[in-house]
Every structure is written in C-alpha cells, then in structure tokens.
Amino acid sequence: MQPGPLLHWFRWLRGLSWPVLRHQAGRQSLALLAIVLGVALAYAVHLLNSSALAEFGRAASSIEGRADLIVQGHSKSGIGAISEADYARVAALPGLTLAAPRLEGQAQLRGNDGKPFNLGVIGIDALQAGSVAPELLPQAEIDTAPTAGALQLLDPERIFLNEAALRKLGISPEPGSPLTLRVADAQSGQARDHLLRYGGRHGAGAAPLAVMDIAGAQVLLGRLGQIDRIDLRLQPDQVPEAWSRALSQMATPQGLPAGLSLSPPKDDGAWMSDITRAYRVNLGMLSLMALFSGSFLVFAVISLSVSQRLPQLAFLGVLGLSASELGRLILFEGLVLGLLGSVLGLLLGWVLADVGLRQILSGDLGLSLGLGSSAGLRFDAGQHLPAAAGFGLLGLLISLLASALPALAVRRMPVAQVLKGLGSDSAKPLPLWLGPALLLLGLILALLPPLPASTGLAEVPLAAYAAMLSLLLGGIACVPSLLRASTSLLKFLPQSATLLLVREHAKDQAAAASRALAGVLVALSLSVAMLAMVGSFRSALQTWLDQMLPADLYLRSSLRVGSGQVAPLAPALLEKLQSSGLTERFIPQYSGRLWLADQEDPVALLARTVQEKDLPVSGPLANSPQPGAQAVYINEAMRDRLKLQPGQTIWLSLDDISGEQSRPATGSARQRLAYVRGVWRDYARQHAALIMALPDYRDWSGERSTTEVLLWLRPGERASDLSPRIRALADQPEDLELASLEELRSMSMHIFDRSFAVTRWLQAVALAIGLFGIAASQSAQALARKREFGLLWHLGLSRAGILRLLTLEAALLCGVGALAGLALGVGLSAVLVFVVNPQSFHWSMELSLPWPPLLGLVAAVFVAGVATTLLAGRQALSAHAVQAVKEDW
After folding, report:
1. pLDDT at 664 over 50
2. How many angstroms separate the CA atoms of 751 and 745, rounded?
3. pLDDT tens for each residue of 27-55
4. For 217, what's the count of Cα atoms within 13 Å in the CB-facing half-sphere?
C-alpha cells in the first residue's frame, strides 16, 4: 500500500527539519523550556483546583447523602426546630419509603498533643441512614463489649470518627477505649464533659467529624426531643417535585406540620464551586501568564534560528523549494517544539500538582477554605484526559502561533538579495494607529459593567481580562513609535559618529525592536501589575485591620455550637471580668446571623458598638428614609449581590422564613424594617454580612449573649501578662481563646502572604521567560549584524567602539522597554485593583504603588537586558566577524 501525500509531506519536512533541530538544540531548548513551564504551571493550577473541588464534593456528598427531599425547620439558631412529634407525623406521610432523622452539632476533643480541636457531630438512626447516606454508617471495629457486633451501631455511648478526626487526635484508639468530648450550651456557653467510647471509623467528610446514634447525640448536645432535619426517600412511582407540590396543597393536619419546609438536597459541591470560582479563574489566568510570555520566547528563538539560516533557506529556494514550502518548514519546527513541550509540560504539571497537594499547599493554593486533601492526585481518565488534551493543544497552538511570523517572513524573503548578503527586510511594519487604538479599546473594555447574575459569570470579569490583553498588545504595538521618539533625546548629548549610528539604527530597526521587546514587555508589565495589586491589597488590609481591630486584646470561646458558630461566653465570666478592673475598657460583641425576607441564605451579623468614624466605610452615608427603621451597615458583597445602595430599606428576620408555607405578616415582632446607612469594606468575607448596633439588636431580639469581648489594656500593661490573669477568672480556662492585636495582625498577614505565595512564583517564572526572550532576540539581531560589525571594524571603528555602540543601543532599547513596561504595568494594576477585585471578590481598595520594589524590578530588567545584549555582541565580534565581509572582497 502506497503512503498518502500527507505522509510523504510529513516525512519530507522531518528529513529537512530534524538535522536543523539537532544542530540548534542549545537555543531550541529555551523555547522548549518556555512551553514546558507554561503548560506545566497552567495544568498544575488546574489540577489543584479541580482536585480540591472534587475532594470537597465527595466529602459533602458523603455527608449529605442521596435523599429525595429534606424536611427542615426554621428558627433563629437553625437548630432544634423539629420535634419528635413532628417527626412521627412526617414519617406517616403517604408515598414515603424512608424518613431518616438527623441531629447536628459541635463538640471538642483534645488531641494527643494536648491541644483541643473542634469536631462536628452528626446523630443518625443507623437502621435508616444506610439507604440515604451509607458513608455515615460506622465501619465497626468489633471488641468484646456486650454490645459487640451490629448492636454497637445503636449504642448511644459509642462514637465513630472519620480519618480527619483521627489525624487530629494523633493516636489510633482501640475499640471501646474512652474519649472525653466537651460540649458548650448554645444559650449559656457553659461547657460539659461527656465520657464516650470509641466505636470505630466512618468514611464521611473531609473535616473532623463524629457519627453516633441520634439518641446519644441528643444527650451529648443537650437537645432531648429535638431533630435538625429529616431525609426523605419516596416510593419509586413518586416524583419529588409533584409529591412536594401535592403535599403543600394539603391541610396542615394531613400535610406537612406548620413551621417545616421541604427542599431538594443542597449541592454543597456546586456551592463551593460558585464561591471559589472567582479565585480559581483569577489564579488560572495568572498561571497562563507564563505561557503567554513564553510564546514570545518561542517566537524569539525561532526568529534567531531563521536569521542564522537565511542563506541556507535562500539556497533551498534557488534549488526549487517554493515560498509556501519554506514557510511550512518553519511551522513544522514549531509543531515539533509544541508537541514535545506540551507532553513534557503535562507530565511536569502533574508532578507539581501532586507535590503541592501532598506537601506544600494542601490542595487549596492558600485559599484556606478546607478544599484540599493531602492524599495526592487520583487519576480519573474521564476528568483528567480532556483537561490534559486542552492544555496540550493550548501549548501546541502557542508554539504554532509563535512560529507563524517567522514562517511568514521566510515566505516573503527576497532570495536573491539574501544570497548576495544584503539581508532580508520582508517584515511589514505595524500601522501607527494600531497601538493607540488597542490601548483605547482596552480602556473601553475595562469600563464595561460585569455580566448579569443570571449568566452565572457575574464574578468572572471577562471584559477586564479582555481589556488587559488589549492593553498588552497595544503596548507592544506602540514600542516602535516610542523608540523613534526616544531618539530625539540623543541630540542633547555630545554628537559623535557612534550616536549617529545609534540614532539611525533605532529608526530603521524600530519594528524589529518591538518584536525583541515583546516578551520582556509583557512579563515586566504583568509583574509590575501583580506587584502593585498585591502591594495595594496589603496596604488596604493593614488599614482595615487597624479600623476593625481597635482593641488591644480579644476574648472568645474556643467551643462551637450549632452549625459552627462561636459559643457564647459564660455570663459569670463576663461579670467577673467587668468587675475585676483588669482592663481599662470592656466592650461586648455578638456574632450571629439574620435572614432577609426574600432570601434563602442567612446573612452574617456583627452586633457591636458602632462608631462610624472608625468603620471602613466605602462611599457616602444615608439617613433613614422612614421613621423607626433600623440603621445597618452592609458589606460590599451584600451590596453587589442584592443590588442595595445606601438609603434603601430591607426587612430583616430573626427566623429563616424563606421556605415556610405561610409566612408571618411583615412587621411582626420577629421582623424589623432596616435601612442601609452605609457600605463597609469587608476583607474577611466574600458573602453577605451586616453590622448593627449591639443595643438595638438586643432590644429587638432579646438576645443577651456575648460571643466576643474587646479589651483595652491599662497604660504599661502587656497582653502576655494579662492573659493568664483573665483565664484565671474562668471556671474552664481551657475553653477560652485570647489573642492580642499583634497576634491577630500577624496571623492575618500570614494568611495573606500564603494566599499570594503562588502568584509570586508564577510572576517570577514569567519574568525569567521574558528575560530569556530578550536575550534570544538580541542574540538574533547581533548575529544578523555580523557583516555590519565587520565592515565597521574595517572602516576603523575599534572593537571597544563597537561594544560602546551596542551598549548605547541596548540602553536605549531596554530603557524604552523598561519604562514602557512600568507604565503599562501601572495601567494593568489599575484594572486589577478597580475592576477585577471589586467584580471578583467584592473588595474595593485604593491603588498604592510600592515604588522601591517597582523601581528595583525595572532596574533589574534594564540591567539584565543590557548585559545579555553585550554578551551577544561579544560573541558576534569574534574572529568570524572579521571574515564576515570576505564575500564582498
């Protein structure tokens, strides 16, 4: 069977290109390295993000189970809303095959190192939960106790721990060994110790989680007769939507008990994907920065290879190769580099992601949301192969696009002129209007509003990313004009033949200079933008901490109640602390949650002493549009997601009424009309939160609990000396968490630095690739000018004079590139600070430029560019440069 024409063409190109690739292996390795690093970083970030979300989704589904519908109650605390009598009525509803009750709470265990850790507790009916959430069923480790075997699943004094809890515990207890759990009362904050026995393991959840019989959980949590939710399984012929609709039309005695609601199971995996989408997209875009910068290095290396082989390529043209065949020859080299680089990049990306997941970042890239696992990557062909193919094709496409311009230049090459040694000037200059037009387009795109919330992409600033790409391309297109304009500055220097040569060469080679500077300009501007954005964020965070943390010492309970809320402090402790005179000032605070009348999800509440001058308010304050309305301060996330503005009114509720079949009349005692007094910056959350004056909240709700206390020290006192004396006032000192202002600031900045650690590595890699690009580009130009250097040498210009000429040219070129990169980077940082951050994270801040590191970065790029140019020039001024003009003799 004869091979087809495509195979013939492939073999022919391989025969021509393979010797060249081997001969140019040293320089081609730079292009290969750029593709490998770019693909590896992008793929590694994708793997870490997808693995973290998949792990969270698996953990969430193992807890949530596979119920058809869920029955929940509605109360201020969200717990204990279903009575056992209501459970019996729900279980008797027609069309059900199963009604599995569940109780949820929080407890505390002490690890082998003596440090306590919080532990989620789920109480289940083991006889029914197996059909709904089988992973919650304990994997019983049989012992010789009387309740050995299957009966121990119903033993109310046994508790079963997951792998995360056992790791925190630090030991692997024997079945039947005692465990002491500490539980706080949701109202008084008083803690109680309960002695239980270890029953074995279960496989649900990623965070520390305990499972036990629901009767034992009711005793442990002090909630006898209470249930949090009921998981329903319907008969096979029932459709959940139709069954729920029919049930809502029944009268209360036959239908769902009053105060309860039906809803489908919540997809926590999708919820986590939604709240982390902005972070993951931004990090993914940043990881592509290295690949984008690497494309210019590939272009520079292939251009260098082409410039060295122009006589050989011209000779092939004389021998009969058409212009299109010469162009395909260059594209084939880019194809080989792209294929090899993509494959190696995918392998390296997997290794980087696996190492990061196991040892460095715990799979969340510093996001600190508990997404990840330290078990390493798990290969899933259905999940990983499409992503690998996509990133591999992206690396191949980048390589082919970077080869396209050199291939086009070869197709337009004047063969006779090149063979005569007159060089090739086939590149067409860019139109002068293109650069300003792209910059203007970038400005317009940056001003576009975010996408509507209905698209699901409201927090993904696609227009802002398009604006940044347009600004980058516009900056590259403006380099020739900037270089020509900069030559006018040379007339202020003492005139000489060297300056004349520099000026004329800068004018003639301005288009080539833009190609040489493209990689480093992109890398430098993006590095400047990231440095300025991170610096602005860090400065804004420090200012915000000063405003939100005005006290010297902060006190709260280490215990949790309900769905993870901080347990209230004991009233006896507060009385002792207030009367002790240990501190100069004592201000209580309450953290909880409220509901809006038309929203399903709760709003975080911070009830505190409000001093508007100390709040990080963003924008103007508004007065009450209606007498009697309660003043609240909402964060930027609540403003953006609910489209609220200062002066607008909202109905607040102490209970979750979003799913009730019959809501209480608006204006009842459990609801209150509030108006938005102002909007405050909240760098601690990306979800809705509001601040209310503590006396107003207590008057409305009747809540007298205190969850945090702010303490001001007396002059000369130190927090480290006062903390033990405050602990001594408590009946259970181990239940208190005390942190000084310095400790909280240090912890906050540590979390901030950890969150941005990956960005620094990505920024450094992209900048290194850009510097390699300018080195390769300058090497290409220096080698292409061998005849020019030889002629200048023969005309009397010394070797030192030629190096001086190269130094001035490099200083002019790199100076223009560095200043252009700085200016473009500042513009990009403005897009990041004023568009990307508010749209993605609902965080506004001022642009604060860290000038010392910015100028140091620009100076380093300038010095590196000049140094690489001089090294390339020294190579071009070897003995071979003298022989370069022998063909003209």
Report:
1. no
2. 10
3. 567 778 788 888 888 888 888 777 777 77
4. 30
Task: Please list the alpha-helical segments (H only) found in 717-756.
Answer: 719-727, 741-755
Give CA–CA dist 135/61, Å, rounded: 9
* 3 state SS of 172: coil
Quick one: angle between helices 786-794 and 799-831, nearest 10?
A: 140
Q: Which pLDDT does position 605 carry in this prediction?
A: 95
CA distance 806 to 786: 12
Task: Look up tokens 């990840």; give the residue.
Answer: 372
Q: Rounded distance, CA 308 to CA 410, Å?
A: 12
Q: Which one has a higher pLDDT value, 149 or 850?
A: 850
- Cα separations in angstroms, 573 against 54, 580, 735: 44, 10, 12
Distance from C-alpha of 73 to C-alpha of 228, rounded to nearest angstrom: 7
Q: Please, what sign has the CA dihedral across residues 720, 722, 728, 731?
A: negative
Whether 763 and 828 have beta carbons less than 8 Å apart is answered as no
Look at strands 209-213 and 158-161 and give their pairing. antiparallel
CA dist 232 to 66, 78, 240, 461, Å? 9, 19, 10, 40
372-423: pLDDT as tens digits: 444 567 777 777 888 899 999 999 998 898 888 888 888 877 776 666 655 5
Check residue 728 and give left, alpha or beta (phi > 0: left; psi -120 to 50: alpha): alpha
Mean pLDDT in residue range 280-292: 74
Residue pair 571/731 in contact by the 8 Å Cβ criterion: no
Q: How far apart are CA 291 and CA 390, in angstroms?
A: 14
Distance (Å, whole) CA 886 – CA 870: 25
Measured between alpha carbons, how far is residue 62 from residues 56, 162, 877 in Å? 10, 12, 70
Q: What is the CA radius of gyration of the chain?
A: 34
Tokens of 246: 């029919």
695 pLDDT exceeds 90? yes
What is the number of helices (H) and of strands (E) in the chain? 27, 23
Contact 304, 403 (CB under 8 A): no
CA atoms of 480 and 521, how far apart (whole Å): 13
pLDDT band at 548 (very low <50, low <70, confident <90, very high): very high
Instruction: Output b/e per residue, 299-310; b: 16+ Cβ within 10 A.
Output: bbbbbbbbbbbb
CB atoms within 10 A of CB 828: 26
Query: What 3-state class would DSSP assign to 106?
Result: strand
DSSP code of 118?
E
Calpha distance 804→866 (Å, rounded): 11
**Which pLDDT tens digit goes with each residue over 478-488?**
988 888 888 87
* Local confidence band at 344 (pLDDT 50, 70, 90 cut-offs): very high
Cα dihedral 282, 287, 293, 298 sign: negative
Report the candidate in 668, 708, 441 with the shortest Cα–Cα distance to residue 574: 708
pLDDT of the residue at 661: 39
d(CA 598, CA 538): 36
Q: Which of 125, 111, 81 is nearest to 182 (CA)?
A: 111
User: Does residue 142 have a pLDDT over 80?
Assistant: no
> 351-354: long-range contacts at Cβ-Cβ below 8 A with a sequence spacing of 24 or more?
352/40, 352/41, 352/44, 353/43, 353/44, 353/45, 353/47, 353/48, 353/51, 353/377
- The answer on pLDDT for 719 being more than 50 is yes
Residue 521 is predicted with a pLDDT of 85
> Could you give the CA distance from residue 371 to residue 363 in angstroms, rounded to a whole number?
7
Instruction: Pick the more confident residue, 678 or 614.
Output: 678
Residue 57: CB atoms within 10 Å: 18
Tokens of 89: 């009525």
pTM, rounded to two decimals: 0.82
